Amino acid sequence: MECRHRLRRPTSGxxxxxxxxDVVVYRADTIDLTPTRPEHVLLVVEVVSPGSExxxxxxxxxxxxxxxxxxxxxxxxxxxxxxxxxxxxxxLATKSYRTGDMFTGTVEVSAPFPVEIxxxxx
Length: 122
What we know:
Number of strands: 8
Mean pLDDT: 82
Helix content: 10-25%
Radius of gyration: 14 Å
Structural class: mainly beta
Number of helices: 1
Distance between the termini: 25 Å
Oligomer: single chain
C-alpha cells in the first residue's frame, strides 16, 4: 500500500503563520519541500496545556483558517483525565472554521484521511 500522508513534528522552518503546531499531517508528495507551506498541510493538531488555552482555542484557530488549513484538531484533557478532541473544518467561503465532531475514547474519521485512534493508548 502506498503511503500518501506523512506525520512529523514541525521544525523551525515551518511557515504556518510562524506557528509550530504540536502535530502536522502533510501530503507525502511534499516531503522534500522546505519550508512546509499551508497548501502542503492536511491537518494541524494542537494540544492545550496550561498557559496555551487562549492561543490554542482562539488565536491559532483564526490563523490556521486564514492560512487555508482545511482541518484543525484541538486536544484537551477533561477534569477526569480523559482526552477530548475537538475537530474543526474550514469553510472556504468565509475562511473560518465550523465545528466538527468531538471525540473521547476512540477517534474515527474519514476526512481528511481515514484514521482510527484509541485515545486511551496515546
